[in-house]
User: Which sequence fits this backbone?
């Protein structure tokens, strides 16, 4: 049986300077009087996963049957939640684009009445996107923005 690659990958989290936003708080709070027994230590956190392959997979399946796309994606993921970062579950969740991380934008997706995966805004292109700052590389569906940063008021 030919096993397909997972739709996520590990990211190097041991490099110098990588911060996770948590840790160290315990040592500053362990002697606080308002801290009562907090219970057992928490479970392992899943850090360092990049779902870019999933987003590319979903974009490549626009127009396909949603049940087949969903079944294949779930079979190649550690959990189903990241699928719905990109695919709207309801009319209220539909957005023309979504932001993943700080500067990576992807087209918003939804499932139409015919059970097909569709783009929320099929006319949206990288040429329409404007970066929020001049110092970072902004991408739309993996392609760098073509427009340059224009400060407010220019």
Assistant:
């Amino acid at each position: 049986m030919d096993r397909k690659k997972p739709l996520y990958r590990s990211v190097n989290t041991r490099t110098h300077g990588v911060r996770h936003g948590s840790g160290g708080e315990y040592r500053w709070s362990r002697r606080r009087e308002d801290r009562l027994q907090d219970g057992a230590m928490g479970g392992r956190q899943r850090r360092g996963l990049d779902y870019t392959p999933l987003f590319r997979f979903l974009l490549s399946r626009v127009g396909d049957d949603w049940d087949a796309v969903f079944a294949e994606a779930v079979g190649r993921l550690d959990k189903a939640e990241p699928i719905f970062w990109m695919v709207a579950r309801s009319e209220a969740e539909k957005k023309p684009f979504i932001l993943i991380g700080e500067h990576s934008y992807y087209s918003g997706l939804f499932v139409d009445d015919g059970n097909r995966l569709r783009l929320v805004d099929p006319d949206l292109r990288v040429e329409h996107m404007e970066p929020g700052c001049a110092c970072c590389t902004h991408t739309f569906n993996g392609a760098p923005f073509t427009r340059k940063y224009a400060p407010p008021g220019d």
Summary: Strands lie at 9-10, 49-50, 87-88, 97-100, 104-107, 109-111, 117-119, 139-140, 143-144. The longest strand covers residues 97-100. The chain has four helices and nine strands.
